[in-house]
Design brief:
The chain is α/β, with parallel strands linked by helices. The protein contains 13 helices and 13 strands.
């Protein structure tokens, strides 16, 4: 990071300049969708032994959205995608690739991305799912950027979507208060302009896979009456260790992304962290030396929506006028895997 560079140098993506000969990857439209049903802390008090006071002080969450029984991840993703496409002025036929980041696909296969591709009429697009838990949207942005910069594709639809309510153990107060459902989407395109995705970086540590997982339903532990009896098809988490790893990894990822763009935190208009928990968000902001007003927060309204989290927050920040054309945005994420990542965008 440096303050000493001339302004015009500091705002250029070094990779676009040197490796990709001026091609830029712009986010030309964003959209999000959350289900209508609100589950408040008061509702949860009726379901498990908890309290609004405990949830609010430990997490900052007041309510979260829950999809209806006949609403699946592909439906949430499709709604968000349609909004992003409309804002970008893009039709289904314009899209070359659909990536859906999710840990709650409609089913193990076919991919949720294929279902969305059909729903939006993206008949010319390839489609696949990406699984990097709560880091999925940043992983997907980085992949989309690579396809665009390498001239493979011109228009990529990236979606983070989750129906986490389908894998929550509603009898486990340690986890059921934390999560919600929703989706966010972005259209990325090559555009002859300077602004766009300046950098995205990703990281992982499979040595800590056990901190946050859903043990059942895969090849290691296929569905059986035993796996059901042992509640293995629900999300499990070691909250304290997850918390520590999240703060460290998000701080490092944010610094790495800023350094790649030769920016410092004072130049960032808006930091959009993964909305897992207000205490994690505050700790990361403090370590980065950010001012409170730089950090975008909506965890109070939606809880942790995993891969959808930063995508929903980005859309809302744009809608609410928090982000304006030309602003620099830092997105930073962390999730199961462990995985983490960060991205810098010039809006
Ligand atoms: N209501 C009331 N009491 C509760 C609840 C609840 N919902 N949940 C746990 N408790 C109790 C525990 O049982 C424990 O009681 P005990 O001392 O009698 O055993 C007590 O509260 C303290 O539990 P801790 O786990 O020590 O509480 P902590 O202060 O660590 O907060 C929390 C728990 C909020 C989960 C915290 O560890 C945390 O934020 N972890 C990170 C979780 C997270 O954000 N994960 C997602 C990030 S990655 C991703 O998004 C995929």
């Amino acid at each position: 990071m440096t303050d000493s560079l001339p302004k015009d140098v500091a705002f250029v993506n070094p990779r676009a300049e040197h490796d990709f000969k001026g091609r830029t990857c712009s986010i030309v439209g964003v959209g999000s969708y959350v289900p209508e049903r609100r589950l408040t802390n008061a509702d949860l008090e009726e379901m498990v032994e908890t309290s609004d006071e405990w949830i609010t002080t430990r997490t900052g969450i007041k309510e979260r959205r829950i999809a209806s029984d006949d609403q699946f991840t592909s439906d949430l993703a499709t709604e968000a995608a349609r909004k992003a496409m409309s804002k970008a002025g893009v039709t289904g036929g314009d899209i070359d690739l659909v990536i859906v980041a999710t840990i709650t696909p409609d089913m193990p296969f076919p991919s949720t991305a294929c279902l969305v591709q059909h729903n939006i009429g993206a008949v010319n697009a390839a489609a696949f799912d990406l699984e990097a838990a709560c880091s999925g949207f940043i992983y997907a942005l980085e992949i989309a950027q690579q396809f665009i910069m390498s001239r493979t594709y011109n228009t990529v639809l990236v979606i983070g979507a989750e129906k986490l309510s389908s894998i929550i153990d509603w009898k486990d107060r340690n986890t059921c208060v934390l999560f919600g459902d929703g989706a966010g989407a972005a259209i990325l395109q090559n555009r002859e302009q300077s602004h766009g995705l300046l950098t995205a970086c990703m990281g992982a540590d499979g040595g800590k896979a056990g901190l946050l997982s859903m043990p059942g339903g895969g090849s290691r532990c296929p569905a059986s009456s035993d796996s059901l009896d042992n509640r293995l098809h629900y999300l499990r988490m070691d909250g304290k260790e997850t918390y520590k790893s999240a703060v460290t990894a998000m701080h490092r990822a944010a610094l790495k992304a800023l350094e790649r763009c030769q920016l410092n935190i004072t130049q960032i208009k808006c930091i959009i962290p993964h909305q897992a928990n207000l205490r994690i968000i505050s700790a990361v902001g403090d370590r980065l030396g950010a001012k409170k007003e730089q950090v975008y927060i909506n965890v109070d309204k939606f809880g942790n929506t995993s891969a959808a989290s930063v995508a929903i927050a980005l859309d809302q920040a744009v809608e609410n006028g928090v982000i304006e054309r030309g602003d620099l945005i830092l997105m930073v994420v962390f999730g199961a895997g462990l995985t983490w990542g960060a991205a810098v965008i010039e809006w």
